[in-house]
Amino acid sequence: MIATGQLEELLENILSRYGYDFTGYSRASLKRRIDGFYVKGRFTSFADMQRRLMDSTAYFMYFVEEVTVNVTEMFRDPAFYQTLREKILPVLATYPFIRIWHAGCSTGEEVYSMAILLKEANLLHKSILYATDLNQAVIEKAKTGIYPINTMQQNSVNYIRSGGKEDFSGYYHANYNLAKFDEGLAEKMIFSTHNLVSDSSFNLFQLILCRNVLIYFERDLQKRVLELFDQSLDSLGFLAMGSKESLRFSSIASHYQQIENKEKIWRKSR
Fold this sequence. Notes:
The protein is an alpha/beta fold. It has ten helices and ten strands.
């Protein structure tokens, strides 16, 4: 496996060569995934792997796809989406225009889930959903709105548990072993690559969702990303995070108030 010194060398070379900064990522998690990549690639040495990554941009993008975490599903954690449906969307409805940022959107299931919520609340027509991820490959997949048909049963169960009342199958068209979501949902989505580590704020949002991403970052990087979100969030806007993530003890905690239930959603107080 890759030694600690070799890992640090690789991360510095990646930053210098491609501008991708993994130096703030949790070392234990990142090393485990790079070790897996090393084994899968059947490299003869660390130098062999590093040479291949430095010589080929296409192969480096494959590396990014392999070592970043892309675990998601539609309406994942139904209680979270029920809270969005019942407590957050009625507040957003008072805005003339709604901008939502899904940071670390992975393959897009979360974005389509939000579009469905907005459609059912009659808010999609005045909303824009910005969906970003470091990984170009997952962005391209998200743009298609196409997912395996065998995931639709669990997606439907999650949807119902989140408070959905419609026929979930009405939101997609099945074709053999694939399901393609209604293009009317995608019309309100903008997909783009964005690096939370190095890129700046690009708009002002009423709701930012970044769920189960910060758990892979070291504390200093978490601080930088939370401050980026703070800069990007409208006054009285909402920030939603994963079940193991929190604003407690963060540099921005003093001007955020968690909504009154167990879901990890905070409202900006100024």
